[in-house]
Amino acid sequence: MEQPQSLRSLFTAAKAEKTSLESRSDSNSDSYRKDVNATIAKFEECQRLLGQLSLFSSNEPLEDIATGDIQYLTVDYLLADILQRTYTSDRESTIRRALEQYEKYLSRLDDYGLLNDNDKKLYERYTSNPSSFSLAPTNDAATRREVKLSRFREEKELKQRLEYLSNNESRLQSDDEDVRKLYLAEINLYTHQAFQSMDLLSQELSMLSAIRNNPPNPAQLPQDDPRRRNENAQSDYSERLDPPLSQLLRGGKFGPLLNKEGKPLQPFTLLDRRTQLQQGVFRSGHNLPTMTIDEYLEEEKRRGGIIEGGEKSGMKEEIDEDDMDKADEETMKARAWDEFKEANPRGSGNTLNRG
């Protein structure tokens, strides 16, 4: 049965948009969320058209599906995968919806016998208890690591086979059988990845349900746990780096005005709240000086911390050039000093180090 062109073009556009979204880095932007919702809407429209056209039936074999229609078996998986990567305010609801789409995808593959023995066992394990589904025991780290390595090698082989078939476009155009092999290789890879996603989503859903049903008891939390901060409404704890205004007003000139008996503790002036706030807006963040340097020196003099008077050392008395007697006196002093230095050379009086 030949599907309408609208389904083919819609499916191709949705896959291209999904691939583009996976390479974007603005996953927290509004534009990204808008594009994600638009892509989800395209896949949902593909599901609606598939149901309207009745392309698949649980009572028909795989050979009855036209080659061009096999690719539409992946619509449910692609929708589940993009839902898994979507984070909304109701994450638990999104996870449940993604798991439903994965289950729908695997159920249809099981109808057509496209699950191998190992995948069929995993699918049966999931349907028997979806809430506890896991690829390996969660409490056995060694076994879980071995399973993870084994599935990694399997996925690598599936990707290599898919890449090989995709690169032979000339053969795909002329050989209908090769096209079917390509689509089936893609389905095998998606099936492998679906079980890994279901394992992770089941664990995440289990944790979210446990948190919702069993919120932590504040009494059992450590004293320094942030979740205990709201226990005491009178707690002085605050995330602010600067002290609150009420704390600032408790000290200095804005200290308590009255005691418990109502008696004034200090002189005060009645001010309105706005005036107090205005005074604190442009206040300096450090202690400002209370006097100038000159005021400080005057205060030290008053307290006797500075000694005045005495000989003015280093100050040479100026000589009047017109006073000839004074000039002759100074000349005679200079000559006497020169004669003394000639008669007593430097170091002549030091006899301690002479051998």
UniProtKB/TrEMBL annotation:
GO terms for biological process: regulation of dephosphorylation; regulation of signal transduction. Pfam families: TAP42. Residues 224-242, 304-317 have a biased composition (Basic and acidic residues). One of its GO terms (molecular function) is protein phosphatase 2A binding. InterPro entries: TAP42/TAP46-like_sf (IPR038511), TAP46-like (IPR007304). This is TOR signaling pathway regulator. Transmembrane segments: none annotated. GO terms for cellular component: cytosol. Residues 211-246, 304-326, 336-355 are annotated as: Disordered.
